[in-house]
Amino acid sequence: MEVKKKNRNEVFRYICKHGTVSNPDISYELKMSLPTATQITKELIEQGLVEEKGELQSTGGRRAKALSAAVNVRLAVGLDITKNHITLVLTNIVGEILKYERICQSYVPEDVYYQKVNEELESFLDEGNVERDKILGVGISFPGIVNLDRELITYSHVLGVEAIPFASISRFLSYPCFFLNDANAGAYAEGFQEEGAEPFFYLSLSNTVGGAFFGRNELMQGKNFRCGEVGHMTVAAGGESCYCGKKGCLDAYCAAWHLSEAVGGKLEQFFERLDQEETAAIKIWDTYTDYLAMAVNNIHMVLDCDIVLGGYVGSCMGTHLQDIWDKVFERNTFEEKDVFVRVCNYKVAAAALGAALKVVESFVRRI
Ligand SMILES: [Zn+2]
């Protein structure tokens, strides 16, 4: 029974990944007999998860049936909660973004806020004419420590809340809810598409700094679900005050607002000024990258893996990645020539997408 389930799961993932395939393809690539492959796809068709789409071009002999995943048969929603915005994303079972919206809405730890979130979610789905019974659930990315064992958000310094049970949020929504820390969600989006991807560390540089380690297709959570909380790694003894109450944390130097506030609000504007070689912007970037390079080097020393720069700054920095690499290279004891720092692939709504993909994965795992 277990073998059969494992085979069916492998076949479904294979079809999702390759678009249009045939039973002989599946049999050959997954090293299973043709009757086994045919029986599995027959079951998947009966379940409505796979569709027949005519015949493939013949390479001699009988033409094979063309099979594709019914990618929109189930959908998932991603909801990213931040201090000043909510972001909504709708995806299908292969992780394509079907709809996206970002709404200005300040967080308040009250029922009225979650009622508003629910209203926004429902109107988002209405606009997309989404059949509600297709929805697998809502993945919620939250900027705090998300304890999956105790099913609560232990705390979020940035939102000024602690010990929020998942149920106290999910009761406002009409779908199963899955919770994820924001940096974990960003990392999950980044790692989801790359099957068997090399392990990497995702450094989330938004208005707070966080991080997550992704390896073997999973997130490492840590004993207290705080793995990767590098925003509170000390980079300057007795340095600047951090919102957590300590001094010299990475967050106190590398949160995105250090750059955006310097130009009056928009991070894109900061990078425009940097492109125009404005002295003030260059000076701020120089200090910013000093601390960032220190952090990247430290993380790399501990984990010896690639580091993906994500969040607002990672999404906006473009070619300025080189400045960081130059400083990391200079710091690195081992003089590695291969660049191990890169910017994220998902530049918009990564956390919301990652949370939605967690929902998708929990569905696909059960197929
Ligand atoms: Zn701190």
Cα separation of the termini: 13 Å
Order of helices and strands: HEHHEEEEEHEEEEHEHEEEHHHHEHHEH
Structural class: alpha/beta
Q: Determine the oligomeric state from the structure.
A: single chain
* Gyration radius, rounded: 23 Å
Share of residues in strands: 15-25%
* CATH-assigned fold name of the largest domain: Nucleotidyltransferase, domain 5
Tally of extended strands? 16
Q: What ligand molecules are bound, each kind once? A: zinc ion
CATH class category label of the largest domain: Alpha Beta
Largest sheet, spatial ordering of strands: 6-5-4-7-11
**Globular, elongated, flat, extended or rod-shaped: what is the shape?**
globular
CATH superfamily of the largest domain: ATPase, nucleotide binding domain
- Which architecture name of the largest domain does CATH use? 2-Layer Sandwich
- Major sheet characteristics: 5 strands, mixed
Mean pLDDT: 93
Ranges where pLDDT stays below 50 over 5 or more residues in a row are none
Summed up, the domain count is: 3
